[in-house]
């Protein structure tokens, strides 16, 4: 059993005009051989964009990319044309063997958290992009992989998933001290391997993004 706490202050930071990105895992020039992945999760980023800024057309292959829009709205151009993803929504891009797409902020102060998952069957997948209803609180983009969006009220308690591997991220708010960590703030993450279920309590209204992997 292992527990790793990753503070937001330790994220790899990338700044460009109109964009601030924080990378939770090794990414591009930010290389850390001890922070490459957690099972199929190879990228976990938090992006803040000015209106009209973001990522122009680029290519991906062999991945499933899951996006949660924290605030603002994100314009996505890809295999289904242009789609606007509003705050509170989940979106799933299946790249298959290869697809081009673009992600640009539709309004100012657009913030989204994005995870990349390796897909061993990508060569047999037709590229697609799906935006789920804003009220959707979970998605299973691949067999044995699940993302839950937990929205907690002030001092509300929730039980974390019990799974072989768990990745948790405080997208908004903060958690009180619990059995495995000091208080966690917005942007902090935790990674569990073979841990039992644990309870956490929100210090203020909070949003948690919880990945579990079989």
Can you lay out the helices and strands and say which pair or pack?
Blueprint (H helix, E strand, L loop, with lengths): L1 E5 L5 E5 L2 E5 L17 E9 L4 E7 L2 E9 L1 E6 L2 E6 L3 E5 L4 E7 L4 E9 L9 E4 L6 E5 L2 E8 L4 E3 L5 E8 L1 E2 L8 E2 L3 E5 L5 E3 L4 E8 L1
Structure at a glance:
With 214 residues, the chain is mainly beta. The protein contains no helices and 21 strands. The two termini are 15 Å apart.
Please supply descriptive tags for the structure shown above.
214 residues; mainly beta; Jelly Rolls; 2 domains; seven-stranded antiparallel beta sheet; six-stranded antiparallel beta sheet
Descriptive report:
The protein has about 210 residues and is an all-beta fold. It has two domains: about 120 residues, Sandwich (Jelly Rolls), CATH 2.60.120; about 70 residues, Jelly Rolls, CATH 2.60.120.10. The protein has no helices and 21 strands. The strands form five sheets. The protein has a seven-stranded antiparallel β-sheet with strand order 2-3-4-11-6-9-12, with no helix packed on it. Strands 1-19-16-21-14-13 form a six-stranded antiparallel β-sheet, with no helix packed on it. A hairpin with a 2-residue loop joins strand 7 and strand 8. The relative contact order is 0.20. The model has no long low-confidence stretch (mean pLDDT about 95). This is Pirin family protein. It comes from Nocardioides marinquilinus. Belongs to the pirin family.
């Amino acid at each position: 059993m292992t527990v790793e706490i990753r503070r937001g202050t330790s994220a790899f930071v990338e700044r460009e005009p109109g964009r601030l990105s924080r990378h939770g895992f090794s990414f591009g020039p930010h290389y850390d051989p001890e922070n490459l992945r957690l099972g199929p999760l190879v990228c976990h980023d938090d992006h803040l964009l000015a209106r009209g800024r973001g990522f122009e057309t680029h290519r991906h292959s062999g991945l499933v990319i899951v996006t949660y829009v924290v605030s603002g709205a994100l314009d996505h151009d890809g295999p289904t044309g242009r789609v606007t993803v509003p705050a509170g929504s989940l979106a799933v891009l299946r790249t298959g063997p290869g697809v081009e797409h673009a992600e640009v902020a539709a309004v100012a102060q657009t913030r989204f958290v994005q995870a990349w998952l390796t897909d061993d069957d990508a060569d047999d997948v037709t590229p697609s992009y799906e935006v789920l209803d804003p009220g959707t609180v979970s998605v299973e983009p691949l067999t044995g992989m699940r993302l839950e969006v937990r929205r907690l009220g002030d001092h509300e308690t929730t039980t974390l998933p019990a799974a072989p591997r768990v990745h948790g991220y405080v997208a908004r708010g903060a958690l009180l001290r619990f059995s495995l960590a000091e208080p966690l703030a917005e942007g902090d993450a935790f990674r569990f391997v073979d841990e039992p279920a644990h309870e956490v309590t929100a210090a203020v209204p909070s949003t948690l993004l919880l990945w579990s992997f079989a």
